[in-house]
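One such given next:

>
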Amino acid sequence: MTGWTEEDVPPVTEGTLAVVTGANTGLGLDTTRVLAQRGATVVMACRNQDKAAAARQGLIDRGVDPGRLRTASLDLADQGSIADFADGLPDGRIDLLINNAGLMAVPRSVTADSFETQFGVNHLGHMALTLRLLPRLNATPGARVVTLTSMGHRPGRIRLDDPNFRRGRYNRWTAYFQSKLANMLFTAELARRNEGRGALSLAAHPGYAATELGKDTGIQARLLSVADRLAAQPSAAGAWPTLRAATDPAAVNGALYGPRRLVSGAAVHETPSRTARRTDLAVRLWDLSLDLLSPAKVTDPLA
């Protein structure tokens, strides 16, 4: 398969609206930049509004049309914030939802709704956001949901009996791998359940890209910074799989895109892990997630 880089991203239809979570830094910022340059209006959905405003101004300083950049408050660790964000979006079309924001290998903590933070933000937060916006996505011809995963989905396992690590010893990497496998299973199950109803569901992973993910954890932050300088590709290149999933006219529902050389290179179609292709596990995770989200009044529009 021919690989994609930024130069392969086509212009988008005038009036296209994209929502990008975690748009103020790294992959999200580069995804926002390219989509806006191609003609989309991008809602930069970010937790920290000061950082969002600074990121928006930085893009404007680089020549991006300010009329194509909006900022909005979204905290994926708080189901109330997710509901407020979804309700606050202006009526009308939503062409692209880029579930980009995430945490990596952070110390044990819980969200406002008492979910383990990585599972709660990376998976449950984005699932709740997607389900709240799905009717509008399905009403928009050609709409897509792109969910960011990582190579970490491959060693991942879903703790169906204890996804929030209430029992036993917490391991930050085990929790991260679980959340990234959950992203893949959610992508696949959304594609299956929503087939023929409208929006496509796709996944992307950046390989090894220099981002801010996981860099607030002491000695780990210093080690990751050294590794980034030695081996990581720029975040702009890490965004290529996301951009391909979002804009490739030939994209197939449920597909995963990643770098050609696993950790770097042009974006190509990639086969998920065997575990990520288990429909039975995807169904069980979907049902479990809805149960966990029910106190926040998140419902399944496909039921």
Q: What stands out?
A: The mean pLDDT is 94.
